[in-house]
Amino acid sequence: MSTQSLTLAPAPRSEAAEQVRAEVRDFLAAELAAGTFTTHVDTWLSGVDPAFSRKLGERGWLGMTWPREYGGAQRTAMERYAVTEELLAAGAPVAAHWIADRQSGPNLLRYGTEAQRREILPRIAAGECFFVIGMSEPDSGSDLASIRTRDVRDADGNWVVTGAKVWTSNAHLSHYAITLVRTAPADPAHRHAGMSQLLVDLSLPGITVNPIRILDGGHHFNEVVFDDVVVPGDMLLGEEGAGWHQVTAELAFERSGPERFLSTYPLLAAFARRVADTGDPAGVAALGRLSARLLALRQLSLRIAAALDRGELPDIPAALVKDVGTTFEADLIDEVRRVVDVPASLDSPDPLGRALAEAQLHAPGYTLRGGTNEILRGIVARGLGLR
Ligand SMILES: Cc1cc2nc3c(=O)[nH]c(=O)nc-3n(C[C@H](O)[C@H](O)[C@H](O)COP(=O)(O)OP(=O)(O)OC[C@H]3O[C@@H](n4cnc5c(N)ncnc54)[C@H](O)[C@@H]3O)c2cc1C
Q1: Alpha-carbon gap, residue 72 to 124, rounded angstroms
Q2: What pLDDT digit, counting tens, does each position of 256-309 carry?
Q3: Which residues are catalytic?
Q4: Is the CB of 167 under 6 A from ligand 1?
Q5: Given the CA of residue 372, which atom of ligand 1 is nearest to it?
Q6: 96 close to 53: Cβ distance less than 8 angstroms
Q7: Can you tell me whether residue 371 is helix, strand or coil?
């Protein structure tokens, strides 16, 4: 076995995390009672509400672990975990800030220049600046090393970007895209060389954002086309040529959070309420099976949050959480359908029927986004020295 095993120390109980959890629950109960949002499935993709994001920012619940000098609250990963878990469980509208808070901000903290950090991080923490991930291309998803979007320096030191990114979640609402580009010609002998990350302001001339609709008709995805877009030279993120290394570190960050098994939690909650009402033995048994899996997943995910607090980068267990977690999300739908006779419809007056329809229509994405399950299993196998 490799040095990185799947064994992680248990997460210590955190009083501070439980305290902030209670605060978030009170806040969400008040917001629900005031009707500022209604519960939906998969809201970290589709629940866009910039005003709600700003409210979280005002309470110090965005950029929670970042240093105060950049607008953060210097709290622990465990405290952040409690906040994100409660927001997801309530099906709250968190999509506007989700990527910036989870991944782009930490990426900037790690690789950004001082000027980039000071300019952008406080705005993310305030819930005023949103980001999109610009990695995938029409012919490059799992095989990210084959990207073709090009970036060349002009005589003034600017970057000139040409190409297209696809499946860019919420690009139409975002301010920046951290864009993976080729800054040197592809070299078949060194496939991971010659790529860089660029901070692209999406309001620049030459950028076109075209909607791609999903099964429920919703507009979350886009194709982003770059036509000789001139990006100032100081918007390189990190090192020129280190794009592959930076991207893989960024992906490890995004794979272990509770969003990888709680996207469909509102469906589980509605199912539990139905089973409590009916007492149906098949429903009780299904709920038991699902709850056991959920609790085990949560323990692993929490242990990763605690490991992050210790400064470790547990990317192999993180890949495992995403694989097993998204499989759980899909299995939940099948269990509910098998046990309860409820018509799934987005217009259903029955919360269970509506949650079921939402979960089903979003289901194709769970095991794809952030790296497909086949790719994740390959990462786990390699980490364990099995390939
Ligand atoms: C909801 C959602 C949101 C997304 N948001 C973004 C975003 O904001 N930004 C962004 O850049 N991208 C985004 N993506 C894109 C996502 O990262 C890609 O869809 C994913 O990486 C897979 O790439 P692909 O779609 O090109 O599929 P492909 O890579 O073509 O894969 C097709 C199938 O082949 C399998 N496969 C491919 N290679 C291998 C291999 N080596 N071994 C075994 N099996 C393999 C895959 O597992 C998959 O089943 C999003 C996707 C979804 C569904």
Answers
A1: 9
A2: 899 999 999 999 999 999 999 999 999 999 999 999 999 999 999 999 988 888
A3: 254
A4: yes
A5: 47
A6: yes
A7: coil
pLDDT tens digits, residue range 333-375?
A: 999 999 999 999 999 999 999 999 999 999 999 999 999 999 9
Kindly state if the Cβ of 130 falls inside 6 Å of ligand 1: no
pLDDT at 249: 81
- Residue nearest (by alpha carbon) to ligand 1 atom 27: 141
User: Which residue, by CA, sits nearest to atom 16 of ligand 1?
Assistant: 369
Full-model pTM:
0.96
Checking DSSP bridges between strand 195-201 and strand 176-182, what pairing results, if any? antiparallel
Instruction: Locate the ligand 1 atom nearest the alpha carbon of residue 135 and give its number.
Output: 11
Residue nearest to atom 40 of ligand 1 (CA): 375
Distance in angstroms (rounded) separating the CA atoms of residues 308 and 60: 20
Question: Other C-beta atoms within 10 Å of 329: how many?
Answer: 25
Distance 330 CA to ligand 1 centre (A): 17
The pair of three-digit structure tokens given for residue 352, joined into one six-digit string? 């269970």
Mean pLDDT of 41-48: 96
Q: Which long-range contacts (CB under 8 A, 24 or more apart) does 212-217 make?
A: 212/166, 212/167, 214/361, 214/362, 214/365, 215/361, 215/362, 215/364, 216/346, 216/357, 216/358, 216/361, 216/362
What domains lie within the chain, and their CATH numbers?
15-130 (1.10.540.10), 133-241 (2.40.110.10), 250-383 (1.20.140.10)
Two structure tokens written together for 290: 């699902």
Contact 320, 376 (CB under 8 A): yes
